[in-house]
Amino acid sequence: xxxxxxxxxxxxxxxxxxxxxxxxxxxxxxxxxxxxxxxxxxxxxxxxxxxxxxxxxxxxxxxxxxxxxxxxxxxxxxxxxxxxxxxxxxxxxxxxxxxxxxxxxxxxxxxxxxxxxxxxxxxxxxxxxxxxxxxxxxxxxxxxxxxxxxxxxxxxxxxxxxxxxxxxxxxxxxxxxxxxxxxxxxxxxxxxxxxxxxxxxxxxxxxxxxxxxxxxxxxxxxxxxxxxxxxxxxx
Length: 235
Hints:
8 strands, three-stranded antiparallel beta sheet
């Protein structure tokens, strides 16, 4: 066997060995990526289940508090000032349904004649909520979820948006309905100038109307682990 044949055979063996090594490494990387993805999905599932369970417990606590408030109200039924104060407090913390003049904002990021590069995301929803607050909205809800001081608007997985730990979106697109109570002219002005144009430019269908709207009560509950009440003389 001449040297040329030996050299060619050696080079071929090296190339084959390299290709086998690359293939093995690629398979290992693919297996690692699959393991990471599986781990992430498991973590997302765990977080979602935890949030669901926490939300269930908070609802139970809220129901107990409502029962206590109703019981106290019955005992003090002849004190209209106290009843009025209780209702004001419940309106402030969102634990009572409210109705009044306001707006209805509908946003569609999928459907016939709708072509968007990216669907609406949590940043969009948080920005709209902040704009409504700046406009003086007294009550806000997104797809039936009342927005309160402890409301979270987060993404779970690639397509599920959670508001108050409750899923409000679905794969394939969702119609988002945002209700707000306040000065209708001011609310419309803020939304028109700050929010609607960017959404339309992104390809979404947006419909804004003035209406008398009913906003549901916050269905969760409040827990305070670290914050404690203090006497007025202590601050």
